[in-house]
Amino acid sequence: MCSIFERTIYPDPESEKAIMGSVVYCIHHKEGCQWSDELRKLKAHLNTCKHDAVLCAAQCGAMIPRLLMQDHLRYTCPRRRANCEHCGKEFSGSALEEHQGNCGHEPVYCENKCGAKVQRRHTQQHVQQHCSKRLVPCRHCGQRYTQDTVSAHSALCSRAPVPCPQRCSAAPARDELDAHLRDHCAAGSVACAYRDAGCRFKGTRPALERHSEESTQAHLALVCALAARQARQLEALRGAVARLGASCSGALVWRVPDWAARMAEARAKDGVELVSPAFYTSQYGYKLQASLFLNGNGAGESTHMSVYIKILPGEYDALLRWPFAHTVSFTLFDQSSSPDRACNIVESFVPDPTWKNFQRPSKEPDALGFGFPRFVSHEMLKKRNFVKDDVMFLRVKVDPSKIVAV
Asked: What distance in Å separates the CA atoms of residue 328 and residue 74, rounded to the nearest whole number?
């Protein structure tokens, strides 16, 4: 319990001797050193222990275990001397590290990923001249392709020249071959320009030119014949269109527009006749047409409006019963705003089978047909609303109970 300063401390030889004689392990026991002995021998052991760190023998300043000294001096010491494995030059350790990754003799992979390895100093030359992935222009179209695909492109390039299949001397571009064969090939066989008209000539272009000069009259005759055929076809088409638009119910409601202008024309000229669209009594029945004289005809001239019915040549006349013997009626509609007050004018007749007008027609009729020259007077037309908004409506109807058709 006394203060340490109040005592005089003296070394204890016996204790010191006991401590120095105790058994200890090497301080690098955990690094793998197996030495163990008396404490007094530890210092001597560390002077030789391969795990103990000592200054680098090349005096780089690093503390390196004796066990790793050779590797340090060979690979990591900044003051080591070593040769580059690619160019063979000698460098110090730090300079070698800077040199590695920049050595011109070191093999590296091509930056275009072609798979080739070339020395770093030759990479630019390889990329420009030897790399299979470098871009090169097609010599035909100018488009750029990689070196390993340009040959395949050239085999299909639209601008690549190809031999003419007619074996002429020309070599047109692939996309111009059809035009060459059609318009320019001297060896190809060409049809005459009038082939659609019937000319069957076919030969080379020089022969075609001679043929065109020598066959002018023949070509003109072919064109005239073609025009005649087309005219007949056009007429047949017009007839077919007319039949599609014609009424097949046995009744026609005829709309007569521009009544005032047409009446003025009829009064100024003699024999002005208006004809209606053709209509049929049924799909395979008689073909009929109405005609109208606004200023009258015959007994009704200048005082009445005259109406007539004509029988036209039809497509199914051979199957119908002749003479025509069905009741025909004409109705002029009163266009009064009140239907209850409308007063239509109706006239009808039964054909006389002895009249030639009702026999089977062989051609378009020149006669008036049959009807009423005094159908309605001009005075009556003014009294009622038979003409409204400059339009008149006239119905022509065949009695359906007497239609004879197949």
From this structure: 130
